[in-house]
Amino acid sequence: MKYFLSILILISFTFTFVSAHGYLAQLIIDGKAYSGNVPGAQATPSVIRQVSDISPVKGASNPDLNCGLSAQFAADVADANPGDALAFDWRGGDNQNWPHNTGPMLTYMTSCGSSSCTTYNSSSSKWFKIQQVARVSSGGPWAQAAVMEGFPANVTLPSTLAPGNYLIRHEILGLQGAVSVGGAEFYPACSQIKVGGSQTGGPTEDELVLLPGAYSDTDPGIYDPNVYDPSASYTFPGPPIAAFAGGDASGTSVSGDASGSASASTPTATSGSSGSSGSSSSLNPQSLSKLLNEDIPS
Ligand SMILES: *[C@@H]1O[C@H](CO)[C@@H](O)[C@H](O)[C@H]1NC(C)=O
Ligand SMILES: *[C@@H]1O[C@H](CO)[C@@H](O)[C@H](O)[C@H]1NC(C)=O
Ligand SMILES: [Cu+2]
């Protein structure tokens, strides 16, 4: 009996270790919940693109950095509006809490063009960043630690976002191994939404990036020898938050508090946007989707 118990403990210990990864289990938009499929399970209609495994994407140039491991098209699309509160509920593999507490969370969007996102392949899309969060305060825990405690990650859709079909890509970086090059774990998850309203905001061309493409394994926010030093500043990987989204109240206050000096916005990025909000708000939905999908005939 004693022997049997130790085997059981050994098995459960091994299982816990092996399954210390996870996936986006639910997206809540303005209070309405949409369930995701368990990775690898038989898919039911969802707005969240199903991935093949709870394991992380490894390597900044891995094609799966786009939407997660072998991400599949999802059958449904969620309606949303500019300024909506989004909550991303990440879970561990066996529906236990998300297992990590170290590293930032970042949110990107891309346009699916004039048709719905249900069959839109984003592998060569141009993405813009709308939000990012690191430590909740200088010296404080990472915001991701609250996800480990069972809370969702919160993101606000930009209040001036132009209507249209979009993928929203919420990403957790597990940096618990980031003291070594190649140690970072990437967990991207793409959800299919249709934004209504009559706003006109969108990114500028120089704010758009490819994913993979925007990150390198040696970026300071991906290979980070100081990741466990609470007072060290953190440099987010990828582009700065798009100017039209940076003006959004909750988005900026969260990332501002969290990043200290760290926001990835480089001086060059702001110099390009003379009359920033004016130039981006002149984009209509057609020109926005054209900007984001230049290879798609309009
Ligand atoms: C999207 O295109 C890439 C490159 O051709 C391909 O590897 C991937 O499987 C496609 N994604 C889906 C969901 O079909
Ligand atoms: C998201 O918001 C809820 C409600 O305010 C809060 O309890 C939770 O901690 C937030 N999540 C994160 C990751 O900060
Ligand atoms: Cu993990």
From TrEMBL:
Cofactor: Cu(2+)
Biased composition, class Low complexity, residue ranges: 246-282
Stored Gene3D superfamilies: 2.70.50.70
MF-aspect GO terms: hydrolase activity; metal ion binding; monooxygenase activity
Signal sequence, renumbered to the chain: 1-20
Record-linked InterPro entries: AA9 (IPR049892), AA9_LPMO (IPR005103)
Enzyme class: oxidoreductase
Keywords of the record: Carbohydrate metabolism, Cellulose degradation, Copper, Disulfide bond, Hydrolase, Metal-binding, Monooxygenase, Oxidoreductase, Polysaccharide degradation, Signal
Pfam families per the UniProt record, alphabetical: AA9 (PF03443)
CDD domains recorded: LPMO_AA9
The protein's Enzyme Commission number: 1.14.99.56
Protein name, as recorded: lytic cellulose monooxygenase (C4-dehydrogenating)
Species: Lentinula edodes (Shiitake mushroom)
